[in-house]
Amino acid sequence: MTTRFRRTIGAFFAIVIAAFSFTIPGLAEVTDADRDAIRSIVREYLLENPEIVREALIELERREEEAQNAARRDAVSSAAEHLFNSTRQVELGNPRGDVTLVEFFDYNCGYCRRAMDDVIRLLNEDKNLRVVLKEFPVLGQGSVEAASVAIAVNETAPEKYLEFHKTLLGSRGQANQELALQVAEKVGLNRSDVETAMASSPEIRATIEEVYSLANRLGLTGTPSFVVGDEVVMGAVGYDALKQKIAALRDCGSATC
Fold first, then answer.
1. What is the largest CA-CA distance in the chain?
2. What pLDDT, in 10s, does the model give residues 213-223?
3. Strand 90-93 versus strand 99-105 pairing type
4. Pairing mode, strands 90-93 and 225-228
C-alpha cells in the first residue's frame, strides 16, 4: 500500500468519523467502538466500490498540484526582480520584448540539449521574445565547473556567449572545466583571459548562488525548468508547448488562459 493511498484512506476515515459525530444528536465524542464500526462500514463500501479510491487519489493529486502551482506563482511574484532583471544572467533576443522566457539549465543535462533547439527556434521565429538564461548546475561538480566557465565567458566576451553555449551544450562527453575551456578557445576566446576571470571575479560564485536561491524559492528540482509570466514549467516540454504558453501570455496575460 503506497503512502498516498494510506493518506487518502486515512483522510477518508477522518471525514466519515467527523461527519458521523455531527449527525448523531448528543454525541460529544466518538468512542473506539464507534470508530471500529465506522471503519468496518467504510471498508465494506470501498471493497464494493473501489473506483472511489481512484477518484479520491485523482482529486488529491489535483489539489496538491493546484497548491504547488499557487505557491510557485507567489514565489515568481516575490522574486520577480531577480528572476527577470538580475545583472547576473544572460539575455538573448529582443531586450524590449513583450514576453520573457526564463530557462534554468545545466550543461550536463541531456534534456537541456533538446530544449536548447526549441528555445533557439523560438528566438529565430519570434522577434518580440526575450529569453533569460540561468546557470543552474545541479548534476555534479563538472556542471558547476562548466557553469563557472560560462559565466566568465559572459563577463569577458558576452557577444560570444551564445555560440559558446550552443557548442558546449551540443558537445559529447561530460561537461566540466576542461571541456568548457576547450569550447571557449574553439569559439575564439583567449583561454587565459577566461581563466583569469574565473579566478578573480566574485560574480562567478555570486551568480550560481543567486540562481540556487531562486530555484529553491520556486521549488525547482531539475533542469530544464522554465518561467513564462507567473507560471513555472518543469521539464523539456517541447517547442509547441512553450510557443503556446508565450501566445497565451500575450492573449490573456497568463501562460494558461
1. 85
2. 999 999 898 99
3. unpaired
4. unpaired
**Domains of the chain: which residue ranges?**
3-76, 80-252
DSSP state letters, the chain: --HHHHHHHHHHHHHHHHHHHHHSTT--S--HHHHHHHHHHHHHHHHH-THHHHHHHHHHHHHHHHHHHHHHHHHHHHTHHHHHH-SSSEEEE-TT-SEEEEEEE-TT-HHHHHHHHHHHHHHHH-TTEEEEEEE---S-HHHHHHHHHHHHHHHH-GGGHHHHHHHHHT-SS---HHHHHHHHHHTT--HHHHHHHHHH-THHHHHHHHHHHHHHHHT--SSSEEEETTEEEES---HHHHHHHHHHHHHHSSS--
Measured distance CA(232)–CA(176) in Å, rounded: 28
The CATH topology of domain 80-252 is Glutaredoxin (3.40.30)
pTM, 2 dp: 0.76
Tell me: pLDDT of 27 over 50. no
